[in-house]
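lol forgot to send this yesterday, sorry. C-alpha cells for the thing we talked abt
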C-alpha cells in the first residue's frame, strides 16, 4: 500500500509538473505572439433590428499562430489575465479596433467599435488616459467607441468604479454591460452608474423559444432597459425565431451567427452595404 501510495503521489506530481510546464510554454508563446502579428481582432457585426444595417461590431481577439490554425480567446485570455499580459493584449485590440473603425468611417461607413475590457485593464490607474490617447491617435470619434464591461468588473469596487466610469463617459464613449443578468443580482447600480447599453447574455437567448424561464428573464431585461432608457444588444442570435420575441424593443441591436460569425476585417467591408432585413 505504501509503495502504491508513493507511486500515485509521483504520478500526481509528474502531471502537475507537466501542467505547469505547458502553462509556462503557453505564456512564453503568448508573450512572443504579442510581439509578432499573431494576435488580431476579429469582428462580429451588430445589426440594427429596425433598419437591418450593421451599426456596430464587437472586436473579439484571435491568436493566429504562424504554423496555422486559430486559437480561441478562451484558451489564452485566462493566462493573459493571470500574467498581466492582458494589459498589452487589451491595448493592442483597442488600438487595432479604433484604427479599423476610423478606416471604415473614412470609407463612408460609421461603424461603432465595441471593445471588451478585462478587470485587470479596467483597474489600471491610467486606463482612461490610454483610451483617450488611442482615440486621439486614431482620430476615431468617441461616439464610435463602446467599452464592454461585465457586471463583476463594474461591481468589483463599486465606489471607486463609479468615478472611473464617469471619467470614461466624459470622453464621450458608450458603456455596455456585457453578459447582463449572469452576475450580480443587485440592479440598483444601473441607476447610479453611467451605463448606456445592456447586452443580454447568450445563455438566456439560446433557449428563449423553448424555455419559459429564459423568456421571462429576457422580457424582464427588455422592460428594465426600456424604463431606464438603455439600449439593448441581444447576443447569440442563431435563429429568426429568437428575434420575433424581441420585436417590440426600441433601439435593439442583434448579434449572432445568424448574421455573421466573428471574421477578419476584410470580410466585414462587403457586409456594410447589406440590408439584413431583406
Ligand atoms: P463575450 O464578450 O461574451 O463574446 C461573445 C462570444 O460569443 C464570442 O466568443 C462570440 O464568438 C460568441 N458568439 C457570438 N455569436 C454567437 C452565436 O450566435 N452562437 C454562439 N454559440 N456563440 C456566439 P469568443 O470570440 O470565443 O470570445 C469568448 C470570450 O473571450 C468573450 O466573450 C470575451 O469574454 C473574451 N474576449 C474576446 N476578445 C477579448 C478581448 O479583446 N479582450 C478581453 N478582455 N476579452 C476578450
Ligand atoms: Ca463582449
Ligand atoms: Ca457577452
Ligand atoms: Ca461571455
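and heres what i got for the seq, position by position
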Amino acid at each position: 500500500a505504501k509503495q502504491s501510495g508513493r507511486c500515485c503521489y509521483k504520478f500526481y506530481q509528474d502531471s502537475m509538473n507537466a501542467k505547469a510546464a505547458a502553462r509556462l510554454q503557453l505564456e512564453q508563446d503568448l508573450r512572443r505572439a504579442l510581439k509578432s502579428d499573431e494576435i488580431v481582432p476579429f469582428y462580429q457585426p451588430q445589426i440594427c433590428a429596425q433598419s437591418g444595417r450593421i451599426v456596430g461590431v464587437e472586436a473579439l481577439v484571435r491568436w493566429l499562430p504562424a504554423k496555422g490554425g486559430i486559437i480561441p480567446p478562451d484558451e489564452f485570455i485566462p493566462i493573459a489575465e493571470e500574467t498581466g499580459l492582458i494589459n498589452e493584449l487589451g491595448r493592442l485590440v483597442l488600438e487595432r479596433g479604433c484604427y479599423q473603425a476610423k478606416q471604415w468611417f473614412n470609407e463612408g461607413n460609421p461603424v461603432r467599435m465595441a471593445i471588451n475590457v478585462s478587470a485587470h485593464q479596467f483597474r489600471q490607474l491610467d486606463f482612461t488616459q490610454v483610451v483617450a490617447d488611442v482615440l486621439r491617435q486614431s482620430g476615431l470619434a468617441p461616439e464610435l467607441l463602446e467599452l464592454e464591461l461585465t457586471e463583476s468588473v463594474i461591481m468589483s469596487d463599486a465606489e471607486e468604479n463609479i468615478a472611473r466610469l464617469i471619467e470614461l463617459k466624459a470622453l464621450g464613449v458608450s458603456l455596455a454591460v456585457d453578459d447582463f443578468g449572469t452576475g450580480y443580482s443587485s440592479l440598483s447600480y444601473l441607476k447610479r452608474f453611467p451605463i448606456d447599453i445592456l447586452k443580454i447574455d447568450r445563455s438566456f437567448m439560446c433557449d428563449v423559444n423553448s424555455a419559459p424561464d429564459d423568456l421571462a428573464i429576457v422580457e424582464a431585461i427588455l422592460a428594465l432597459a426600456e424604463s431606464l432608457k438603455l439600449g439593448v444588444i441581444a447576443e447569440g442570435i442563431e435563429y429568426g425565431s429568437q428575434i420575433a420575441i424581441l420585436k417590440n424593443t426600441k433601439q435593439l441591436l442583434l448579434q449572432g451567427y445568424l448574421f455573421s460569425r466573428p471574421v477578419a476585417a476584410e470580410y466585414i467591408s462587403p457586409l456594410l452595404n447589406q440590408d439584413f432585413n431583406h
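The pocket of calcium ion (ligand 2) is lined by residues 58, 116, 148, 178 (CB under 6 Å). anyway ping me if u want another try
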